UniProtKB/TrEMBL annotation, chain A:
It comes from the Eukaryota. The keyword Iron applies. It catalyses: [3Fe-4S](1+)-[protein] + Fe(2+)-[Dph3] = [3Fe-4S](0)-[protein] + Fe(3+)-[Dph3]; 2 [3Fe-4S](0)-[protein] + 2 Fe(2+)-[Dph3] + NADH = 2 [4Fe-4S](1+)-[protein] + 2 [Dph3] + NAD(+) + H(+). Keywords: Iron, Metal-binding. This is Diphthamide biosynthesis protein 3. PANTHER family: DIPHTHAMIDE BIOSYNTHESIS PROTEIN 3, DPH3 HOMOLOG-RELATED. SUPFAM superfamilies: CSL zinc finger (SSF144217). GO terms for molecular function: metal ion binding.
Length: 82, 608
């Protein structure tokens, strides 16, 4: 069962992991990559434990538009997705 | 308790210009020049000192401390051989709260189910009990006016027997000194340091004696054996074991950096880092440091405790650890934050990370009392001239800042939370997207994300119940509250069944979906609970008999039971068989996926 439902705008882009992340209660991070999102994957997993969350987002926001990255995440600001 | 700080208090504020004084607590009117000490004066503002009678015969100082510290920070505590206790708080509010609690007809303050009488030390009844003239011992203090300028009034002698026999205590009130800024500078540096460190020093008839007595106190403090145990998720070094691995059983920490820093008085455990506050006002940190939350000027993990050097010039009185950020409050009421600032949770007006504690300038002219750090937000408790105030900053999407009825995404500068006008706040707490405050009269306010499927609250909501709460611990989806030695939980419908969703109980809704449902934690009958702590998804309590129990999510060993099973009801846990039978006091702290216990054993002279 999903630990929580989290909107993509509440997830943070992590440059090092190249993934959107959200805090996991174990101390690690739930993670999901852009590639996963493009494929319509909605489960973000924690590499350290059995828990996972359901990511709430619009697949269309992540589909390639003329091969440009759909979102340019900033390093400092929380990610906001239209 | 009483410990000198190593460095002069003013080292960061030298020269002591006007800005050096701005953090002082609000000053009461300058009191009359020192009244004649040989007759008691009740006109001066009473020092927050209390006399406790009716103690159980085997009551230890630690028992007394754990019972009374819930009303506020204690600067001094002792029990004389007549089983009369003396508790001096840092703040008058705390003492008032203790008095009020003791007068509560339905609960009162009890120890070992004995009801205690709590009186102001200035109460004529308390003084009559001791049969000692107030201030008599201080009359012939002939060491000149310097210390007298700090001396507000003498107190009831702390002990009639034993070590403190020939001593009298005196309250050194920094407010008095502050009101006369020039005279405080005349006070010898040493005396000033001591006065600032604890507000209270024990004085003998001369200056020499004062120092001697003070050092005796230090020895007493260090004579206590303190051992620290950690277990649970450990891959970021948060267990302080030096190993980057989970531990399913309590691990005793063998750390010279910890023992040399002096006894730990308080721990704050965050997402994967730990802040340890020593009784000397120093801070050690360890665990995940990738956002600068350890305050070590870098962004790397530290598997061992390390002193936060940049706070060395301050006497830190309160700390809090969020998911990836940290807050520190000094005795001067200054707030420092470091770590992840992505959501504005550091309060500096930007969204940057800071890897050294930086003073939050918004509070520069205010007196911060407490900080509480949640996942992405922070709360601050202020003691102001016009009453207590709570401020919030950081992420506010779930209403956890409590600053407006409308939804607020995030703020990077502190804003005042609504709904506390005229309320005396004893403590604030934050974890996950939850916020909570306990009022001095035992009311619980919560705001932020709802518990157990209830709606979020944008502003603080008082729990509609007749219970008088003394402590609260917040997880990410649940909360524990302590009332009259009993533990209740709310929002715990999937507490202890995370890895087995089939066992999940349906969300309990009351008629009003905003209302939380309090449920008594089963399996704790027969013994009162003293301490509660909550991790993201696990819980821990300590009973008055020193029994430690844990339950909730156990996948990383955070329950310390030697396995990774979840538990729906409290399970007894032993730190070590060797120590099981020794007298001692356990304090418990939970980080997101880990747990730390501090066990303080009393030297034989104090144990009973």
């Amino acid at each position: 069962m999903s630990y929580d439902d989290v909107e993509i705008e509440d997830m943070e882009w992590n440059n090092e992991l190249q993934a959107y992340t959200y805090p996991c209660p174990c101390g690690d991070l739930f993670q999901i990559t852009k590639e996963d999102l493009k494929l319509g994957e909605e489960i973000a997993r924690c590499p350290s434990c059995s828990l996972y969350i359901t990511v709430v987002y619009n697949v269309e926001d992540f589909l390639d538009k003329k091969s440009n990255k759909p979102i340019e995440p900033s390093k400092q600001q929380p990610i906001t997705v239209a | 308790m009483s410990r000198k700080r190593d460095k002069p208090y003013f080292s960061r504020h030298v020269p002591a210009s006007a800005s050096g004084w701005k953090r002082r607590r609000p000053m009461p009117p300058h009191p009359e020049p020192e009244p004649e000490l040989d007759k008691p004066t009740y006109k001066l503002p009473p020092p927050p000192a209390l006399v406790i009678t009716g103690l159980p015969p085997d009551c230890s100082v630690l028992d007394l401390k754990s019972r009374f510290e819930i009303y506020g920070a204690i600067s001094r505590i002792r029990i004389d051989r007549d089983a009369v206790g003396y508790v001096t708080y840092r703040a008058t509010d705390s003492a008032e709260a203790a008095i009020a609690a003791s007068l509560d007809p339905s609960f009162g303050i009890t120890l070992d189910s004995k009801r205690l009488q709590v009186l102001w030390a200035t109460d004529p009844l308390a003084q009559w009990r001791k049969g000692v003239g107030v201030g008599a011992e201080n009359r012939d203090s002939s060491n000149g006016s310097s210390s007298n300028s700090n001396l507000l009034r003498a107190e009831v002698p702390l002990r009639r027997h034993g070590r403190g026999n020939k001593l009298a205590s005196a309250i050194v009130n920094p407010r008095v000194a502050a009101a006369d800024g020039s005279s405080v500078l005349d006070v010898p540096a040493k005396a000033r340091e001591i006065g600032r460190a604890e507000s209270i020093v024990v004085m003998e008839e001369n200056e020499e004696g004062k120092i001697v007595k003070h050092e005796e106190e230090e020895e007493e403090e260090e004579g206590r054996q303190q051992d620290i145990w950690s277990w649970g998720a450990g891959t970021d070094g948060q267990l302080g074991t030096g190993r980057l691995q989970d531990e399913l059983l309590p691990q005793l920490l063998h750390l010279t950096s910890l023992s040399s820093a002096g006894p730990i008085s308080f721990l704050a455990c965050g997402g994967a880092h730990v802040l340890a506050l020593t009784s000397g006002g120093k801070v050690l940190t360890w665990g995940r440091g990738t956002s600068g939350q350890l305050g070590h000027s870098d962004t790397v993990n530290s598997p061992h405790p390390k002193l936060v050097m940049s706070l060395n010039n301050y006497f830190i009185t309160h700390v809090s650890a969020g998911w990836n950020h940290s807050g520190f409050v000094s005795d001067t009421g200054a707030l420092f934050t470091c770590g992840d600032g992505t959501f504005g949770q550091l309060g500096h007006g930007d969204y940057r990370l800071h890897c050294d504690p930086v003073e939050v300038s918004f509070f520069a002219s205010k007196h911060v009392e407490q900080i509480a750090c949640g996942m992405r937000h922070s709360l601050v408790l202020l003691r102001g001239g016009s009453g207590d105030e709570v401020y919030g900053f950081g992420s506010g999407k779930r209403g956890q800042l409590g600053i407006a009825k409308d939804k607020i995404n995030l703020v990077s500068l502190p804003e005042r939370s609504c709904g506390f006008e005229g309320v005396k706040i004893a403590s604030i707490t934050a974890n996950g997207d939850h916020s909570a405050a306990l009022s001095a009269d035992g009311h619980l306010y919560t705001w932020g994300r709802g518990f157990g499927g209830t709606l979020s609250a944008q502003t603080p909501q008082r729990l509609p119940t007749s219970f008088c709460f003394t402590k609260i611990a917040l997880g990410w989806n649940h909360a524990l509250v302590l009332t009259g030695g009993e533990v209740f939980m709310f929002g715990g419908n999937h507490h202890g069944v995370l890895s087995n969703p089939d066992k999940m109980t349906p969300v309990k809704h009351s008629a009003d979906s905003r209302e939380v449902v309090l449920e008594k934690v089963p399996g704790l009958e027969g013994s009162r609970t003293l301490h509660i702590a909550a991790g993201a998804e696990h819980s821990a309590i300590v009973t008055e008999n020193g029994v430690l129990k844990t339950w909730g999510w156990g996948e990383h060993g955070q329950l310390g039971l030697g396995n990774i099973s979840d538990q729906t009801s409290p399970q007894e846990l032993s730190l070590s068989h060797k120590f099981q039978k020794e007298a001692g006091l356990i304090e418990i702290y939970c980080g997101s996926g880990f747990t730390i216990a501090i066990r303080t054993s009393c030297p034989p002279s104090q144990a009973g």
